[in-house]
Design goal:
389 residues; eight-stranded mixed sheet; six-stranded parallel sheet; alpha/beta; 20% strand; 14 helices; Rossmann fold
Length: 389
C-alpha cells in the first residue's frame, strides 16, 4: 500500500514516529510524507524552518514548495507536488490540515486530474461548532463531498463533522503517539533530592502552558484544601498566568509547597513526570456558544495524559473536551472548574495507595494498547485497509 501524508506537522522529525512505525508494519507498505519546504510556526518573530529530505527504508520525507508559511488553512503546495504524485502514485492521500484546507482541495483535485484513484482522507483536531461564510463554505463542501475517510483527533470533532453532513467513515485517534521507550517508569531519587522533594511527600504534578484555560487556578484552590498533609506541587512549564498563580498560592499560604520548573527539552520531561504521584490536567472550556461568534477553546486531547500513563503515574483530568475519552476508566475525572471535587480526588489518591497503584497499572495498559506510535500505526493501517476493500 502506497500512502502519502501531507502536513506541516512533520517538519519535526520527532513527530514522524507513528508513520515510521506504519511503514514497518508490512513489507508492501510505503509511506511518503509531504512537508512544506519552508515553515514559520511562530509568525514574524520566530525562525523560519527549512525541511530537509530524508529516507529510512520504505519511509521518506519530501519537502515540497509551499504557499503561505504560517497559516494551516491557506497553505498549499507548488508544482513539484504534481511530479511527486505521478511518480509515487499513492493509494491513500491524507492531508492533516483540517476540513477547510486549501491543500486538501488541491490534492483532491490533483488526484482526479492525474487519475490516481487514491482514497482521500484528512485529519482534524477542530472540536468546536462553527459557521462558515462564502467562499469558505463552498471549499469545505467540496472537500467533504470528495472525502473517503476522516481521522478526527477527538470525539467532539467527529460529532461536529457528522452535524455538518459528513456520512462517511471516521476514526477517532490522536495525531501523535507516545514513545514508550522514553516515557516509562524510572525512579529519579537524585532529581527529587535536588528539588527538595522528600520521600514522604505526595507530589501533585502539572505539565503544560501556564494559561487560564489549563485550569491552574482551579488546581491551586484544590491544593489549598489538602491541609497539612505532606505534599508538594511540581509545575513544569511557563506562561502568562505564572505570576497570578504565584500570588494566589502565596496568599493562601501554600507558596512554599510549589516547585517551579521552566520548560525543559522533551527528552527530559519523563524525568519530572516520574517524580509525580499523580498528574493533573484541570483544563477548562472557554467556548460556550452554539455558533462560532468568538474565539474559544476546549481540550483537544491532552497528550501529557498518555505520557504520564506510560510512566505509570495515575492521572486526574477535568471533563473538558477529549480528556474523559483519553483517560477512560483508568484515572479520575472531575467537573471542570470544581476545585472541591478535584481536592476530593487528590485526597482519595493520597489516602488510598493501593487504589493509586491500580490506576497507574490500568493507565499503563491502556496506553500500551491504544496510544503508542505502533498501536496508532496499526489502527491507521486497519482503517486504510477497510477503505480499500
Amino acid at each position: 500500500m502506497r500512502i502519502l501524508i501531507a502536513s506541516h506537522t512533520y517538519i519535526v522529525d520527532l513527530n514522524c514516529a507513528k508513520f515510521r512505525a506504519l511503514a514497518g508494519l508490512e513489507p508492501d507498505v510505503d509511506v511518503t510524507i509531504v512537508a512544506p519546504k519552508r515553515w514559520n510556526p511562530g509568525g514574524v518573530q520566530s525562525q523560519l524552518i527549512e525541511t530537509q529530505p530524508w529516507q529510512a527504508g520504505s519511509f521518506r520525507v519530501e519537502p515540497v514548495a509551499n504557499f503561505s508559511q504560517n497559516n494551516q488553512g491557506l497553505m498549499c503546495f507548488g508544482a513539484d507536488l504534481i511530479q511527486l504524485l505521478r511518480q509515487f502514485r499513492p493509494q491513500i492521500i491524507q492531508v492533516e490540515q483540517g476540513a477547510k484546507a486549501l491543500a486538501y482541495a488541491q490534492t483532491i483535485t490533483l488526484n482526479r486530474i492525474l487519475g490516481l484513484r487514491a482514497k482521500n482522507l484528512f485529519f482534524t483536531w477542530w472540536n468546536l461548532p462553527y459557521e462558515l461564510k462564502f467562499p469558505v463554505s463552498l471549499l469545505e463542501a467540496y472537500n467533504l463531498r470528495h472525502t473517503d475517510g476522516i481521522v478526527a483527533g477527538n470525539q467532539d470533532g467527529a460529532d461536529i463533522l457528522r452535524q455538518r453532513g459528513y456520512a462517511g467513515e471516521i476514526r477517532v485517534m490522536p495525531q501523535l503517539g507516545v514513545d514508550e521507550t522514553l516515557f516509562r517508569p524510572q525512579p529519579q531519587p537524585d532529581l527529587a533530592a535536588k528539588l527538595g522533594i522528600q520521600p514522604e511527600d505526595f507530589v501533585v504534578g502539572f505539565v503544560g502552558r501556564f494559561v487560564e484555560e489549563k485550569g491552574l487556578l482551579t488546581l491551586i484552590k484544590a491544593l489549598e484544601q489538602l491541609g497539612n498533609r505532606p505534599w508538594k506541587c511540581l509545575l513544569l512549564g511557563r506562561g502568562l498566568l505564572q505570576q497570578q498563580v504565584m500570588k494566589e498560592s502565596e496568599a493562601s499560604g501554600i507558596g512554599d509547597r510549589l516547585i517551579w520548573v521552566e520548560s525543559v527539552p522533551h527528552d527530559r520531561v519523563p524525568r519530572y513526570i516520574n517524580l509525580m504521584n499523580t498528574l493533573v490536567l484541570p483544563s477548562e472550556t472557554t467556548y460556550r456558544f452554539k455558533t462560532l461568534t468568538s474565539v474559544g477553546w476546549k481540550e483537544q486531547f491532552g497528550h501529557v495524559l498518555i505520557e504520564a500513563m506510560a510512566c505509570q503515574v495515575p492521572v486526574i483530568g477535568s471533563d473538558s473536551g477529549e480528556i474523559p475519552h483519553v483517560i477512560g476508566a483508568t484515572g479520575l475525572i472531575f467537573p471542570e472548574g470544581k476545585a472541591n471535587i478535584l481536592a476530593d480526588c487528590l485526597q482519595k489518591l493520597m489516602e488510598q495507595p493501593e487504589f493509586r497503584h491500580d490506576l497507574a497499572k490500568r493507565g499503563y495498559d491502556r496506553v500500551m494498547t491504544h496510544y503508542t506510535n505502533r498501536a496508532l500505526a496499526e489502527q491507521l493501517l486497519n482503517f486504510y485497509k477497510s477503505l480499500m476493500d
